[in-house]
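Lab meeting prep.
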Amino acid sequence: MYRMISAMTHATPSPLDTLEKLTVFVVDDDISVRESLELLITSAGLRPVLFDSAQAFLAASPIAGPSCLVLDVNMPGLNGLDLQCMITKSGNRTPIIFVSGFGDVPMTVKALKGGALDFLTKPIDAGALLEAIQSALAQSEALIRAEEELLRLQACYDALTRREREVMSGVVKGLLNKQVAFELDISEITVKAHRGQVMRKMSARSLPDLVNMAAKLRIEDGREVH
């Protein structure tokens, strides 16, 4: 890889450090690689969490917050590609960076098609790896923000009454108030009142804003599409 450096003893991070630092999981059966990666990741102000096998990673308790996974391909037992497949099937969206001393084109293609962010072959340039890690962590942060926003929108939508959801459905489809009133067999004044409530409860600043929220919630005909 890059120049191997003997393992250093790091103090156990305080709870505050744990909250502030981004996590980089490393799964590699080579202890010298793990030690070298630990030092590199720590030097970048990130928190490394090391595993010597895919099985150990799967058995570990999850850690909240932005993270990425630096994963060796060729390991005894469960290999990196197998682990990637299991992670994907579980719904875990942690960005993965593969590293391998025996990379070939078919292996690289399979990893990238499986959703890997990058595939680096050993010996790995430390700068290239850190760049890939920063990109992966930025992606993880964006995913977490998007999930938090979706949960917020879902909570707002759940607070709407049945009629308000019906009015919202018509509005985001581009119907005029009088058209929504005709479809629901209610007065246009009632539609306007419900529309105002929808905008308030959803914290929508404008109609395009509301349409964008509906798209994120995958709302169709007043129902959330799963």
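Slide two material, second protein:
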Amino acid sequence: MVIAAPQLKEALDYVKAELNDDNPYVVYPSPQGVLISQEVIETLSHHDNVVIICGHYEGIDERFTEKYVDLEVSIGDCVLTGGEIPAMLIADAMSRLVPGVVGKTKAVIEDSFYRGMLDNPNYTRPSEWEGLGVPEVLTGGNEKEISRWRRREAVRRTLTRRPDLISRASIREYLSGVNVAVFAGNGNFNPAGIAEICRAYGAGRPYIIAVNQELRETMKKLCPEAKISGSIRRLQESLGENTLTVKVTGTPRRNSLHSLEAKRKCLENEGGILFLFSEDDGELEDVAGITGYLFENDSDLPMAVKIGIALDRFLGKR
């Protein structure tokens, strides 16, 4: 009850000739494959030609898989009669990424999973139905408030229903604001590089904490675009009490949070986020906020690289 390799090879050769493509991307839906996801779909959509091999019964000869299949995919832990339904799923999901298939590109971008998060709840007319109403904010006409509500509800729904998605989600647009502060130090400290990293991840101009006037003047010369502050507490006060400070350390410490837990805390916070870094973790001890460890400490890594790693864990694209 296994489909033989010679006949599969003949079928694939026929398709190659029809496509005039000697190297199409071959996908085989199988229980042993990687779980299908939006990332897999987007990867497949970048190929000119995708050939899907539909198995039946016990599947196909493993020798054909080893030699000609580029990717095995699974639609979940269930058993189907054949590969036709997974093939339809793949084709349908890929088609949505073709310009013009869905009327508005924005509609595709806002779908669940596109950024790694679930979509917000959706409503339509009538405004009252069987005793249930549409949230008032959606009928008020304030686009800014509606956008804020949609982001907040997408976060709430993802945290409640699919918290497993948070580890791979890009959460930048779901946060009210992101700032980076770093205690000025010696050695691998490069303020210009830090500023470039912050700009790349949409964190704005970094704050540099310099405790004395001489150090502040030095930092201003090294990185004119950075914001210089003499005290982390004054910086926290200026950003507002709703800003959550995440003290980033290299290794686990007492009461510190794994990066995933710290990421969840950021999403749950109503205000902005301040990521705080230091070459000396001791400088972070008395600072209010949560402590998140995001990478194994490596003293040879420049501070700009450590900041880049941390921001990518939180704000990078999927």
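Talking points for slide two:
Residues 13 and 209 are 65 Å apart (CA to CA).
The chain has a mean pLDDT of 89.
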